[in-house]
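Protein folding task:
====================
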Amino acid sequence: MAVRIVRLGTPRARGEGLRLGTVRRPPRGVRRSDFARLDFYDLWLPVLSPSAPLVKQALAARSARELARFFRKFRTELARGPGAQVLDLLAALSHGADFSLGCYCEDERRCHRSALRDELEERGAAITS
């Protein structure tokens, strides 16, 4: 049992389980009834997404320093809101269920899902590749 960190819209891995979308907005041009069928997500969990201003900041980041600033601010947002409790829950569930969470970004190193991975690891989550 474990959690996977994935790119939404990519084919699901065998045994991946429920896919959680940690994105601010649903996929454009896709009917809600097709989200799961097209491997986006089964459940939408925007509480684990950066705020709209932080998304803009991440997209505009041109240097490692600017990107690091985004990650610090995102982790602060998580700590101040309900995201921290949701991450605690997901870390605990990872020991008894298979599920995944993800975002649309192509490069995980520039994506908030890398911070989610770190947050889950710090909480003792079982994480698989």
Observations:
- The CA atoms of residues 24 and 60 lie 17 Å apart.
- The longest helix spans residues 64-80.
- The chain is about 35% helix and 15% strand.
